[in-house]
Amino acid sequence: MKSSLLLYVATILIFTLGIYFVLSYGSRLESSASASAQRDMSSPTVVLFSGPDWLEGAWNTVGKALRENQREPLGILLLQVTVILIATRLTGGFFYKLGQPPVIGEMVAGLILGPSLLGLIFPKTFSFLFPPSSMGALSLLGQIGSVLFMFVVGMETNAKQLKEKARAAIIISHASIIAPFFLGVTVSLLIYRLFAPPDISFTSFALFLGAAMSVTAFPVLARIIEDRGISDSQLGQIAIACAAVDDVTAWCVLALVIAIVKAQGIMASVMTVTLALTFTMFMLYILKPRLNRITDAGFEGEKKNIVLVGALALVFISAYLTSAIGIHALFGAFLAGTVMPAAPEVRFFLRDKIANFSVAALLPLFFAFTGLRTQIGLLNDWQSWLAAVGIITVAVVGKLGGSTMAARWAGMKWSESISIGVLLNTRGLMELVVLNIGHDLGVLSGRIFAIMVLMALITTGMTGPLLSLVELVAGKGIKQERLATTA
User: Fold this and answer.
1) Helix, strand, coil proportions of the chain in percent (round to 5)?
2) Which of 234, 105, 56, 241 is nearest to 161 (CA)?
3) Is 239 a domain residue?
4) How far apart are alpha carbons 160 and 167 in whole angstroms?
5) Rounded CA gap, 424 and 459, in Å?
């Protein structure tokens, strides 16, 4: 054993020295006199074991190579992914222990890593981790994560549940959209000159602000309902149905708004909307029935892999087509999710394979990229903070108030109506998706983008405490009714 080890070491050493001497001798054969002169001026002669000068030159060479390797695009991206995943996991876990959805912690992690905190306190570290040249790759990975996430959201939209609760869900969800949309458009009259980019029309700015006000985070809402154990109750089922209708309607409204913002003239806008409606009808009424036949002959073995590859191909093609039409790629991903085969085993399989990876690995990159875009420091005067307070108040009044009143008109109790309003006021990740679309289109300036990100955080964070408060008040009311009946 010992002799084998010595032989191994000797072999490696002999061949390494041989390679070194061959390269050293071969370098003398270079015919370029200028290259030789440059080497003589800039570096010591290559001699094995020449003492301290050799050691210093080797150290400088190694140090230079390490510094260059650190700035390689792939190396920077891998470092960014590592830092982002660790930060979002830690903050998500911390907020979960506080009784908040982990998504809030992940959103906060993005702000911590961005210019609002890390860039302010440790600017050199921030510039090393997130140089401007690396933002393109990080953005693309985050967008792929959001595309896959919207595909999962589309799969979780339960059409059967929507039909069963259709009347109440449509009334409540549409009221929860139109009220904040109207208030958002109205608020635009006050803030357009202060916050809108100079080359954006009032119509584009107002419509996008209204659309951003009217969003509900369906996945976060579903998670909150599940954590509270009310998913099987009437309140939970109606809230899920309302959120699903809200999501579908809001995305259709957003698609229309994007078409208006991007289109050059009325005819181009009409063409974009017509193509979008045609594509939607094709997906829902032609492709979906054919996809439902996939499980007729069973769903097992190699067929699972075929379905997985086919689903991924469909989501990316659908996203590409809606992007090419003039709507956002996320709308196509959402549509691809809604047309997946209705069989529970198919949807569970796809959700298990796609959601775990996209939510755990890629969505945090989307949060971080949003945080890198958000500069809270831009809100540096009383007008900005007054606008922030006003926008957050209007968003809560429009969404929570509108859905509460609609639920009450639909025949629900006050406690249930307020709970519905609180749940639909949850904006979470969906709001960040909409805001990033607005930022990419140039509709939202840096200041209004920061204000809207704060609004998304606050409206999501207030959901849990408000629900607990409603349950506490409702519980006391029930006890008082029982005591009065007994007396």
Assistant:
1) 85, 0, 15
2) 241
3) yes
4) 13
5) 10
At position 311, the amino acid (one-letter code) is: A
Residue 214 has pLDDT above 60, yes or no: yes
Percent of the chain past pLDDT 90, that is, above it, reads 14
Please report, as a single letter, which amino acid is at residue 154.
G
> Both tokens of residue 245?
């209708």
CA distance 146 to 428: 13
Helix (H, G, I), strand (E, B) or coil at 100: coil
Q: Which two tokens stand for residue 199?
A: 């080359």
Cβ burial, residue 308 (10 Å; 0-12/13-18/19+): middle
Question: What is d(CA 208, CA 185) in angstroms, rounded to the nearest whole number?
Answer: 8
User: How many structural domains compose the chain?
Assistant: 1
Q: How far is CA 426 from CA 20, 55, 222, 399, in A?
A: 66, 62, 10, 9
CB-based contact 446:379 (threshold 8 Å): no
Report if residue 69 sits inside a domain.
no
pLDDT tens per residue, range 269-328: 677 778 888 888 999 889 988 888 776 666 676 778 888 899 999 999 999 998 888 777
Q: How far is CA 53 from CA 20, 22, 106, 460, in A?
A: 18, 22, 51, 62
Plot region of 157 (φ>0 → left; ψ -120 to 50 → alpha; else → beta): beta
What's the domain range around 304? 139-363+378-475
Instruction: Classify residue 234: in a domain, yes or no.
Output: yes
User: Is residue 388 assigned to a domain?
Assistant: yes
- Report the alpha-carbon distance of residue 75 to residue 131 in Å, rounded: 12
Amino acid at 239: A
Is the distance from CB of 420 to CB of 235 less than 8 angstroms? yes
28-42, 70-84, 115-129, 286-300: lowest mean pLDDT where?
28-42
> CATH number of the domain that 260 lies in?
1.20.1530.20
Residue type, 103: V
